[in-house]
Amino acid sequence: MSSIAFLHPDLGIGGAERLIVDLALALKDCGHSLVIFTSHHDRNHCFEETNNGQIPVLTAGDWIPRSTFGLFMAFWAYIRMIYLTIYLILNYRFDLIICDQVPSGVPILKAFKHKCLFYCHFPDQLLSKHDSFLKKIYRFPIDYFEEWAIGFSDMILVNSYFTDEVFHKTFKSLANVSTKVLYPVVNFAESAQEKIPGTLNAKFKNVATIFLSINRYEKKKNIALAIEALKALYDKFDYVEEKDRSRIHLIIAGGYDLQNIENLEYAEELNQLAKKLRIKSHVTFMKNLTGEQKQFLLQNCTAVIYTPENEHFGIVPLEAMYMNRPVIAANCGGPRETIINNETGFLCEPNSADSFAEAMHQFIKDKTLSNQMGSRGHHHVVEKFNYQKFKNELNKIVNDLINQNE
Protein backbone atom coordinates (compact mmCIF):
# COMPACT_ATOMS: atom_id res chain seq x y z
CA MET A 1 0.00 0.00 0.00
CA SER A 2 0.97 3.68 -0.01
CA SER A 3 2.83 5.89 2.45
CA ILE A 4 0.88 8.88 3.73
CA ALA A 5 1.84 11.82 5.95
CA PHE A 6 -0.42 14.22 7.79
CA LEU A 7 0.63 17.82 8.42
CA HIS A 8 -1.27 19.22 11.39
CA PRO A 9 -0.29 22.33 13.41
CA ASP A 10 -0.88 21.38 17.07
CA LEU A 11 -2.04 17.87 17.96
CA GLY A 12 -4.37 18.47 20.90
CA ILE A 13 -7.82 17.06 21.68
CA GLY A 14 -10.16 19.24 19.62
CA GLY A 15 -12.59 18.26 16.90
CA ALA A 16 -10.03 18.84 14.15
CA GLU A 17 -7.56 16.57 15.90
CA ARG A 18 -10.23 13.90 16.39
CA LEU A 19 -10.90 13.94 12.66
CA ILE A 20 -7.20 13.67 11.80
CA VAL A 21 -6.88 10.70 14.13
CA ASP A 22 -9.93 9.05 12.56
CA LEU A 23 -8.61 9.68 9.05
CA ALA A 24 -5.30 8.14 10.05
CA LEU A 25 -6.94 5.11 11.68
CA ALA A 26 -9.16 4.53 8.65
CA LEU A 27 -6.22 4.65 6.24
CA LYS A 28 -4.18 2.41 8.51
CA ASP A 29 -7.06 -0.10 8.52
CA CYS A 30 -6.87 -0.03 4.72
CA GLY A 31 -3.22 -1.03 4.85
CA HIS A 32 -1.50 2.30 4.28
CA SER A 33 1.56 3.31 6.29
CA LEU A 34 1.30 6.75 7.83
CA VAL A 35 2.84 9.33 10.14
CA ILE A 36 1.41 12.51 11.64
CA PHE A 37 3.82 15.48 11.57
CA THR A 38 2.98 18.25 14.00
CA SER A 39 4.56 21.29 15.63
CA HIS A 40 3.29 20.39 19.08
CA HIS A 41 2.23 17.15 20.75
CA ASP A 42 1.63 17.18 24.49
CA ARG A 43 1.35 13.54 25.60
CA ASN A 44 -0.68 14.66 28.61
CA HIS A 45 -3.19 16.45 26.40
CA CYS A 46 -3.84 14.33 23.34
CA PHE A 47 -5.92 11.44 22.02
CA GLU A 48 -4.76 8.06 23.26
CA GLU A 49 -4.15 6.71 19.76
CA THR A 50 -1.35 9.27 19.29
CA ASN A 51 0.16 8.42 22.66
CA ASN A 52 0.23 4.63 22.66
CA GLY A 53 2.07 4.10 19.37
CA GLN A 54 -1.04 3.20 17.41
CA ILE A 55 -0.44 6.26 15.22
CA PRO A 56 3.20 7.39 14.84
CA VAL A 57 3.74 11.08 15.58
CA LEU A 58 6.81 13.19 14.74
CA THR A 59 7.23 16.68 16.16
CA ALA A 60 9.32 19.50 14.68
CA GLY A 61 9.43 23.25 15.21
CA ASP A 62 7.97 23.47 18.69
CA TRP A 63 10.78 25.87 19.54
CA ILE A 64 9.20 28.45 17.25
CA PRO A 65 6.95 30.76 19.31
CA ARG A 66 3.18 30.44 19.12
CA SER A 67 2.68 34.16 19.59
CA THR A 68 4.37 37.43 20.43
CA PHE A 69 3.08 38.44 23.85
CA GLY A 70 -0.22 36.77 23.03
CA LEU A 71 -0.47 38.45 19.61
CA PHE A 72 0.20 37.44 15.98
CA MET A 73 -0.85 33.83 16.58
CA ALA A 74 -1.99 33.30 12.98
CA PHE A 75 1.34 34.60 11.65
CA TRP A 76 3.34 32.26 13.86
CA ALA A 77 1.06 29.33 13.04
CA TYR A 78 1.90 29.86 9.36
CA ILE A 79 5.64 30.07 10.13
CA ARG A 80 5.52 26.91 12.24
CA MET A 81 3.74 25.04 9.46
CA ILE A 82 6.25 26.22 6.85
CA TYR A 83 9.10 24.96 9.04
CA LEU A 84 7.30 21.65 9.60
CA THR A 85 6.76 21.24 5.85
CA ILE A 86 10.41 21.92 5.05
CA TYR A 87 11.47 19.46 7.75
CA LEU A 88 9.30 16.79 6.14
CA ILE A 89 10.57 17.48 2.62
CA LEU A 90 14.24 17.40 3.64
CA ASN A 91 13.96 14.13 5.54
CA TYR A 92 11.16 12.05 4.04
CA ARG A 93 9.22 11.19 0.90
CA PHE A 94 5.58 10.09 0.90
CA ASP A 95 3.06 9.11 -1.75
CA LEU A 96 0.58 11.65 -0.40
CA ILE A 97 0.53 14.50 2.12
CA ILE A 98 -2.74 15.38 3.85
CA CYS A 99 -2.84 18.91 5.30
CA ASP A 100 -5.50 20.68 7.32
CA GLN A 101 -6.16 23.97 9.14
CA VAL A 102 -2.98 25.84 8.10
CA PRO A 103 -2.26 25.71 4.33
CA SER A 104 1.05 27.60 4.29
CA GLY A 105 3.02 24.45 3.47
CA VAL A 106 0.90 23.43 0.46
CA PRO A 107 2.70 25.58 -2.18
CA ILE A 108 6.06 24.30 -0.90
CA LEU A 109 4.92 20.70 -1.17
CA LYS A 110 3.79 21.26 -4.74
CA ALA A 111 7.07 22.97 -5.62
CA PHE A 112 8.81 19.75 -4.65
CA LYS A 113 6.33 17.60 -6.59
CA HIS A 114 4.46 16.13 -3.62
CA LYS A 115 0.82 15.22 -4.02
CA CYS A 116 -1.28 17.11 -1.52
CA LEU A 117 -4.84 16.79 -0.22
CA PHE A 118 -6.19 19.65 1.88
CA TYR A 119 -9.02 19.04 4.37
CA CYS A 120 -10.85 22.28 5.08
CA HIS A 121 -12.63 22.36 8.44
CA PHE A 122 -13.58 26.01 7.87
CA PRO A 123 -11.93 29.12 6.37
CA ASP A 124 -9.51 30.42 9.00
CA GLN A 125 -10.21 34.04 8.11
CA LEU A 126 -13.81 33.58 9.27
CA LEU A 127 -12.65 32.27 12.64
CA SER A 128 -10.67 35.45 13.34
CA LYS A 129 -12.14 38.79 14.31
CA HIS A 130 -11.54 41.72 11.97
CA ASP A 131 -12.84 44.26 14.47
CA SER A 132 -10.26 47.01 14.21
CA PHE A 133 -8.34 48.83 11.49
CA LEU A 134 -5.01 47.41 12.65
CA LYS A 135 -6.44 43.89 12.84
CA LYS A 136 -7.76 44.23 9.29
CA ILE A 137 -4.32 45.33 8.07
CA TYR A 138 -2.68 42.42 9.91
CA ARG A 139 -5.16 39.86 8.61
CA PHE A 140 -5.25 41.06 4.98
CA PRO A 141 -2.02 39.33 3.80
CA ILE A 142 -2.78 36.23 5.91
CA ASP A 143 -6.30 35.93 4.50
CA TYR A 144 -5.03 36.42 0.97
CA PHE A 145 -2.26 33.88 1.49
CA GLU A 146 -4.71 31.33 2.93
CA GLU A 147 -6.81 31.41 -0.24
CA TRP A 148 -3.79 31.41 -2.54
CA ALA A 149 -2.09 28.51 -0.76
CA ILE A 150 -5.17 26.27 -0.64
CA GLY A 151 -5.49 26.68 -4.40
CA PHE A 152 -2.33 24.61 -4.92
CA SER A 153 -3.95 21.48 -3.46
CA ASP A 154 -4.51 18.48 -5.72
CA MET A 155 -7.83 17.88 -3.96
CA ILE A 156 -9.90 19.70 -1.34
CA LEU A 157 -12.20 17.94 1.11
CA VAL A 158 -14.69 19.71 3.40
CA ASN A 159 -16.53 18.43 6.45
CA SER A 160 -20.11 19.39 5.54
CA TYR A 161 -22.26 20.94 2.84
CA PHE A 162 -22.50 24.00 5.06
CA THR A 163 -18.71 24.36 5.02
CA ASP A 164 -18.69 23.67 1.29
CA GLU A 165 -21.05 26.59 0.68
CA VAL A 166 -19.07 28.90 2.96
CA PHE A 167 -15.79 27.81 1.30
CA HIS A 168 -16.91 28.89 -2.16
CA LYS A 169 -18.47 32.12 -0.92
CA THR A 170 -15.31 33.04 0.98
CA PHE A 171 -12.61 32.03 -1.49
CA LYS A 172 -13.80 33.84 -4.61
CA SER A 173 -10.77 32.87 -6.71
CA LEU A 174 -11.48 29.19 -5.96
CA ALA A 175 -15.14 29.39 -7.00
CA ASN A 176 -14.56 26.98 -9.87
CA VAL A 177 -12.41 24.58 -7.86
CA SER A 178 -14.26 21.36 -7.10
CA THR A 179 -14.53 20.21 -3.51
CA LYS A 180 -15.86 17.01 -2.01
CA VAL A 181 -17.77 16.54 1.24
CA LEU A 182 -16.41 13.83 3.52
CA TYR A 183 -18.36 13.79 6.76
CA PRO A 184 -16.49 12.99 9.97
CA VAL A 185 -17.85 9.87 11.65
CA VAL A 186 -18.02 8.29 15.05
CA ASN A 187 -15.33 5.65 15.44
CA PHE A 188 -16.33 3.97 18.67
CA ALA A 189 -15.22 0.45 19.44
CA GLU A 190 -17.76 -2.32 18.90
CA SER A 191 -18.27 -2.50 22.66
CA ALA A 192 -18.88 1.25 22.99
CA GLN A 193 -22.55 0.84 23.86
CA GLU A 194 -21.88 -1.57 26.68
CA LYS A 195 -22.71 0.03 29.99
CA ILE A 196 -19.67 1.25 31.88
CA PRO A 197 -20.03 0.35 35.55
CA GLY A 198 -19.88 3.14 38.06
CA THR A 199 -22.00 5.66 39.89
CA LEU A 200 -22.43 9.37 39.54
CA ASN A 201 -21.14 11.71 42.20
CA ALA A 202 -23.21 11.79 45.37
CA LYS A 203 -24.43 15.29 44.45
CA PHE A 204 -26.46 13.67 41.63
CA LYS A 205 -28.15 11.17 43.91
CA ASN A 206 -31.59 12.76 43.68
CA VAL A 207 -31.20 14.25 40.20
CA ALA A 208 -33.82 13.08 37.73
CA THR A 209 -32.69 15.02 34.66
CA ILE A 210 -29.09 15.63 33.59
CA PHE A 211 -28.23 17.85 30.65
CA LEU A 212 -24.69 17.45 29.33
CA SER A 213 -22.59 19.97 27.39
CA ILE A 214 -19.36 18.68 25.83
CA ASN A 215 -17.11 21.29 24.20
CA ARG A 216 -13.70 22.84 24.54
CA TYR A 217 -13.61 25.81 26.91
CA GLU A 218 -13.63 28.38 24.10
CA LYS A 219 -15.89 31.40 23.59
CA LYS A 220 -16.84 30.36 20.07
CA LYS A 221 -18.46 27.24 21.53
CA ASN A 222 -20.98 29.53 23.27
CA ILE A 223 -21.15 27.32 26.37
CA ALA A 224 -22.62 30.22 28.35
CA LEU A 225 -25.86 29.58 26.45
CA ALA A 226 -26.26 26.24 28.23
CA ILE A 227 -26.06 27.96 31.62
CA GLU A 228 -28.45 30.71 30.53
CA ALA A 229 -30.85 28.08 29.17
CA LEU A 230 -30.87 26.27 32.52
CA LYS A 231 -31.71 29.55 34.26
CA ALA A 232 -34.44 30.23 31.68
CA LEU A 233 -35.82 26.73 32.27
CA TYR A 234 -36.14 27.44 35.98
CA ASP A 235 -37.76 30.84 35.42
CA LYS A 236 -39.93 30.08 32.39
CA PHE A 237 -41.46 26.89 33.71
CA ASP A 238 -41.68 27.89 37.39
CA TYR A 239 -38.93 25.64 38.69
CA VAL A 240 -38.46 28.05 41.55
CA GLU A 241 -38.40 25.86 44.62
CA GLU A 242 -35.04 24.45 45.58
CA LYS A 243 -36.45 20.94 45.93
CA ASP A 244 -37.60 21.10 42.30
CA ARG A 245 -34.40 22.63 41.01
CA SER A 246 -32.33 19.92 42.62
CA ARG A 247 -33.96 17.41 40.30
CA ILE A 248 -32.34 19.06 37.25
CA HIS A 249 -28.62 19.45 36.71
CA LEU A 250 -26.22 20.66 34.02
CA ILE A 251 -22.79 19.12 33.50
CA ILE A 252 -20.32 21.13 31.43
CA ALA A 253 -17.37 19.04 30.30
CA GLY A 254 -14.64 19.73 27.80
CA GLY A 255 -11.04 20.15 26.74
CA TYR A 256 -8.99 22.44 28.96
CA ASP A 257 -5.36 23.32 28.23
CA LEU A 258 -3.41 25.08 30.97
CA GLN A 259 -1.20 26.66 28.29
CA ASN A 260 -4.23 28.16 26.57
CA ILE A 261 -5.13 31.49 28.16
CA GLU A 262 -8.59 31.49 26.58
CA ASN A 263 -9.40 28.13 28.19
CA LEU A 264 -8.47 29.45 31.63
CA GLU A 265 -10.30 32.75 31.26
CA TYR A 266 -13.46 31.30 29.73
CA ALA A 267 -13.76 28.54 32.33
CA GLU A 268 -13.65 31.17 35.05
CA GLU A 269 -16.12 33.36 33.14
CA LEU A 270 -18.58 30.46 32.99
CA ASN A 271 -18.12 29.79 36.68
CA GLN A 272 -18.85 33.43 37.50
CA LEU A 273 -21.91 33.39 35.21
CA ALA A 274 -23.37 30.42 37.08
CA LYS A 275 -22.81 32.27 40.36
CA LYS A 276 -24.33 35.47 39.00
CA LEU A 277 -27.46 33.63 37.87
CA ARG A 278 -27.59 31.89 41.26
CA ILE A 279 -27.57 28.39 39.82
CA LYS A 280 -23.96 27.44 40.66
CA SER A 281 -25.09 24.50 42.81
CA HIS A 282 -26.90 23.06 39.78
CA VAL A 283 -23.94 23.25 37.42
CA THR A 284 -20.89 20.98 37.50
CA PHE A 285 -17.72 21.75 35.54
CA MET A 286 -15.48 18.92 34.37
CA LYS A 287 -12.27 19.17 32.36
CA ASN A 288 -10.29 16.88 30.04
CA LEU A 289 -12.47 13.79 30.20
CA THR A 290 -10.99 10.43 29.45
CA GLY A 291 -12.77 8.40 26.77
CA GLU A 292 -14.34 6.23 29.46
CA GLN A 293 -15.56 9.22 31.48
CA LYS A 294 -17.09 10.75 28.37
CA GLN A 295 -18.86 7.51 27.51
CA PHE A 296 -20.12 7.16 31.08
CA LEU A 297 -21.60 10.68 31.07
CA LEU A 298 -23.26 10.11 27.71
CA GLN A 299 -24.82 6.92 29.01
CA ASN A 300 -26.21 8.62 32.11
CA CYS A 301 -27.39 11.99 30.81
CA THR A 302 -30.91 12.81 29.66
CA ALA A 303 -29.85 14.85 26.63
CA VAL A 304 -26.81 16.63 25.23
CA ILE A 305 -26.90 20.40 24.77
CA TYR A 306 -24.78 21.54 21.84
CA THR A 307 -24.52 25.34 21.85
CA PRO A 308 -22.14 26.58 19.07
CA GLU A 309 -23.70 28.81 16.43
CA ASN A 310 -22.87 28.02 12.79
CA GLU A 311 -20.67 25.12 13.81
CA HIS A 312 -18.85 23.78 10.75
CA PHE A 313 -19.89 20.19 11.43
CA GLY A 314 -19.80 19.15 15.08
CA ILE A 315 -18.80 15.62 16.07
CA VAL A 316 -20.40 15.77 19.53
CA PRO A 317 -23.99 15.39 18.25
CA LEU A 318 -22.94 12.25 16.36
CA GLU A 319 -21.25 10.82 19.44
CA ALA A 320 -24.32 11.55 21.55
CA MET A 321 -26.78 10.01 19.09
CA TYR A 322 -24.58 6.97 18.62
CA MET A 323 -24.77 6.47 22.38
CA ASN A 324 -28.59 6.68 22.24
CA ARG A 325 -28.81 10.23 23.54
CA PRO A 326 -30.88 12.99 21.92
CA VAL A 327 -29.31 16.37 21.13
CA ILE A 328 -30.50 19.94 21.60
CA ALA A 329 -28.60 22.20 19.18
CA ALA A 330 -28.80 25.45 17.21
CA ASN A 331 -30.71 25.30 13.96
CA CYS A 332 -27.77 26.35 11.82
CA GLY A 333 -24.48 25.04 10.47
CA GLY A 334 -23.44 21.40 10.62
CA PRO A 335 -26.05 20.19 13.15
CA ARG A 336 -28.74 20.79 10.52
CA GLU A 337 -27.10 17.98 8.53
CA THR A 338 -26.76 15.56 11.42
CA ILE A 339 -29.80 16.05 13.68
CA ILE A 340 -33.34 15.26 12.54
CA ASN A 341 -35.53 17.84 14.27
CA ASN A 342 -38.22 16.39 16.55
CA GLU A 343 -36.93 12.86 15.86
CA THR A 344 -33.34 12.58 17.10
CA GLY A 345 -33.36 15.86 19.01
CA PHE A 346 -34.41 19.49 18.77
CA LEU A 347 -33.01 22.25 16.58
CA CYS A 348 -33.49 25.56 18.37
CA GLU A 349 -33.26 29.22 17.56
CA PRO A 350 -29.53 30.06 17.62
CA ASN A 351 -28.28 31.84 20.74
CA SER A 352 -31.75 31.84 22.32
CA ALA A 353 -31.82 30.68 25.94
CA ASP A 354 -35.63 30.54 25.87
CA SER A 355 -35.68 28.34 22.77
CA PHE A 356 -33.17 25.92 24.30
CA ALA A 357 -35.11 25.97 27.59
CA GLU A 358 -38.31 24.99 25.79
CA ALA A 359 -36.53 22.00 24.25
CA MET A 360 -35.09 21.00 27.63
CA HIS A 361 -38.57 21.19 29.12
CA GLN A 362 -39.82 18.53 26.68
CA PHE A 363 -37.60 15.94 28.39
CA ILE A 364 -38.90 16.94 31.80
CA LYS A 365 -42.54 16.67 30.74
CA ASP A 366 -42.07 13.31 29.02
CA LYS A 367 -39.67 10.95 30.78
CA THR A 368 -39.80 8.46 27.89
CA LEU A 369 -38.75 11.01 25.26
CA SER A 370 -35.01 10.70 25.92
CA ASN A 371 -34.88 6.98 25.19
CA GLN A 372 -37.25 7.25 22.23
CA MET A 373 -35.26 9.97 20.50
CA GLY A 374 -31.98 8.39 21.55
CA SER A 375 -32.86 5.10 19.90
CA ARG A 376 -33.80 6.84 16.66
CA GLY A 377 -30.58 8.85 16.84
CA HIS A 378 -28.46 5.72 17.12
CA HIS A 379 -30.03 4.15 14.05
CA HIS A 380 -29.64 7.43 12.16
CA VAL A 381 -25.90 7.64 12.90
CA VAL A 382 -25.24 3.98 12.10
CA GLU A 383 -27.06 4.31 8.79
CA LYS A 384 -25.83 7.68 7.54
CA PHE A 385 -22.48 8.19 9.28
CA ASN A 386 -21.17 4.67 8.98
CA TYR A 387 -17.45 4.19 9.73
CA GLN A 388 -17.04 1.43 7.14
CA LYS A 389 -18.61 3.65 4.49
CA PHE A 390 -16.35 6.53 5.56
CA LYS A 391 -13.27 4.30 5.40
CA ASN A 392 -14.09 2.93 1.96
CA GLU A 393 -14.82 6.38 0.54
CA LEU A 394 -11.64 7.84 1.99
CA ASN A 395 -9.54 4.94 0.72
CA LYS A 396 -10.94 5.40 -2.79
CA ILE A 397 -10.23 9.13 -2.72
CA VAL A 398 -6.66 8.55 -1.57
CA ASN A 399 -5.92 5.75 -4.04
CA ASP A 400 -7.38 7.69 -6.97
CA LEU A 401 -5.32 10.74 -6.06
CA ILE A 402 -2.09 8.79 -5.64
CA ASN A 403 -2.57 6.97 -8.93
CA GLN A 404 -3.55 10.13 -10.75
CA ASN A 405 -1.03 11.35 -13.32
CA GLU A 406 0.44 14.78 -12.79
TrEMBL record:
EC number: 2.4.1.132, 2.4.1.257
Coiled coil: none
Chain ranges of the Glycosyl transferase family domain: 209-378
Record keywords, A-Z: Endoplasmic reticulum, Glycosyltransferase, Membrane, Transferase, Transmembrane, Transmembrane helix
CDD domains: GT4_ALG2-like
Segments traversing the membrane: 69-90
Pathway membership: Protein modification; protein glycosylation
Localization annotation: Endoplasmic reticulum membrane
Name of the top EC class for this enzyme: transferase
Principal localisation: endoplasmic reticulum
All residue ranges annotated as the Glycosyltransferase subfamily 4-like N-terminal domain in the record: 13-186
Entry-linked Gene3D superfamilies: Glycogen Phosphorylase B
Superkingdom to which the source organism belongs: Eukaryota
Database matches in InterPro entries: ALG2, Glyco_trans_1, Glyco_trans_4-like_N
Function description: Mannosylates Man(2)GlcNAc(2)-dolichol diphosphate and Man(1)GlcNAc(2)-dolichol diphosphate to form Man(3)GlcNAc(2)-dolichol diphosphate.
PANTHER family: ALPHA-1,3/1,6-MANNOSYLTRANSFERASE ALG2, ALPHA-1,3_1,6-MANNOSYLTRANSFERASE ALG2
Assigned protein family: Belongs to the glycosyltransferase group 1 family.
Name of the protein: Alpha-1,3/1,6-mannosyltransferase ALG2
